[in-house]
Amino acid sequence: MLYSGRRLNQKQRVLSAQTRSVSASRLSVLERPELEEKFAKALDQNKELKTRNNELQEALKQLKARLRWPPHIQEAVLGKESQQQEQNLKVLESRNLQLAEQCQLYERTIRQLEGRLEMLNSKNSARSSRCAEKPSHGAQFEAVKKAMEEWKSHAIAYKQQAAEAVSRLKDTEERLAQMLRLHTLDSAELIRTSRTSKHAVAQLTSVQEENRQMKAAIEKFQEKIDEMVGQLEAEKLRNIELQENVSQVQQLRRANIELLQEIDDVKKEKSAIQGQLQNLVHEAAQIPEALETETKHLRKQIDALRKEHAGDIKKLHHVLEDKGQQVKDLEAQAEELKSKLSNLKSQQQVKPKKIHVDHKNTQTISLEIDLKPPEATVELSNEESDQMLSQMNDEVEMHKQTMRSLQSMCESYKKELESLHEQLQTERKNYARQLSLEMAQFKALQEQLKNYSNNQVVVQAEIEAPKKAPKPKPRKITRQVKAASENEEIKELVLEIESLLVPEKSLLLGMKDNFFIDFKITLPSGEESESYETPANYPLPTSPSSPAHIGHKHKWQEQKVKALFRQPDCIIQFDLVSDNDKNPDMDCTEIGIGKLPLTELLRVVEANNMVNLDVPISIEGNSTAVASLRVALTKVS
């Protein structure tokens, strides 16, 4: 009995243990839906975390795109925000570390739950085995079996749910790993954080708090993003302004390129104009030479004609003298005849009506005689008188013919001389016209060169204009600037052309010995220096107002004097210099205009019919005074 009682007590204890295990299993079964609910909540929270991570990834992409902007925009926009971004990245790294810790906690909780499930499964298996060993306990054992079967089915379902949850967790872990890889730059840390995301299922409460914190941080980050968007819009506006500035700069560059092309064209025109000028200079050099040769040839012809006809002229003079003597003889004979006729008047009653002798013009003699009818007593004397009168008339007519021939020859010579003189005058006039035309062309070319210099200076000024303007506006290009370099080049070119033109103009003109020239220097203080005249081959005027003697020496304060010689058609720049630079005393015979002597100056003055010339000069050297030189040209009486 005691044994049976003990066995009953043991059975009761076993049943109590089984009931307790059943109650524990029931409790575990009751706890599983709560776990499922927690697991579903954890999945929802993971989805929310994924969405938030996606938002963070988009924000990071935007930041990376901003970091890919050009350097000048990054410096302008991200200079102040780089520190804030670094701080934000540090905050994100700290949050990632926190998430990793939470994932570790979730893994621990999952392991604990798996351990509990294994314990429950082991207990259920032990109970089922015990129930199978003792099948004779009746309805309790059957109920326990049913409960065990139900528990097994629930355990299988729970296992399936756990497997599904594990697969879901793996999927979430993989997604979280991908998101974390995109979220940070270090791949190793992202992989570690993705592995530690398995523990994210357990710590749901902490995740909620952290999610709230993350929401607040995300809101702050969205605010910052809004600020960044505003800054981006401002930067877009700045970019638009910069693009406008770039377009304006490109337009200016195109204008500069066009201006440079115009400069090249103008340079080509300048070279062509210089070639034309050189051709004109050569032509101007050839024209005076041809005219000189023509004048020399004409003069030689005149001299040859004079030499050829000198003997004829002398013969004609002798003939004229002989004829004059014959006329005188005829006048004497006429007087004798007058006396004879006066004697015959009384005898034969002959009355001469008119006898006219032109003493002023000895080339013509006219006689008019009226005779009465002769008487029979004096026939012989009348015949003799008629013969004598007829002879005298014949001789007078011969003399008239000879004088007429001589007059015609003299007139022909005079006409030839006048025609030659007219040819010379026409040639001089034509040469003067050619010179005037050449000077007009030269002035036009000079104006073109000035316009070219102004255009080139404007181009240089526009090229050298400030390029760092904030908003350069398109403006019209003006051509009114002057540059010293271009003006100096043009002046040098003009002086070279003038130095080539002046000697060729002055060499053609003739020179006479009936002019003298008087130089007088007036200093700025009003003091007049002594005057000096032309060399000895030019005579002085006979008037008492003539200045100093021939060959007077004037002592110059400076050795070089530059002067400007003005004519109606051109401007000549020349130097009055001494051959001996060491000796300041200079004879007036050594003065010249550039390479021309003083005689050529007189030729130029005489050709232009100029009497008084005011020539301003500037003295080089130590003194900075400017003196005036007066050139007085006076015709000798």
Describe this entry's structure for a reader.
It contains nine helices and twelve strands. The chain has helices at 2-67, 71-77, 81-133, 139-183, 187-195, 204-348, 379-463, 484-508, 598-607, and strands spanning 354-357, 365-368, 515-522, 532-533, 554-555, 560-566, 571-577, 585-586, 592-593, 596-597, 612-619, 628-635. It has a six-stranded antiparallel β-sheet. Strands 1-2 form a two-stranded antiparallel ribbon. The longest helix is centred in the middle third of the chain and has 145 residues, at 204-348. Keywords: Coiled coil.
Q: How would you describe this structure in keywords?
A:
single chain, 637 residues, alpha+beta, 3 domains, 6-stranded antiparallel beta sheet, two-stranded antiparallel ribbon, 9 helices, 12 strands, disordered N terminus, disordered C terminus, C2_domain_sf, RPGRIP1_fam
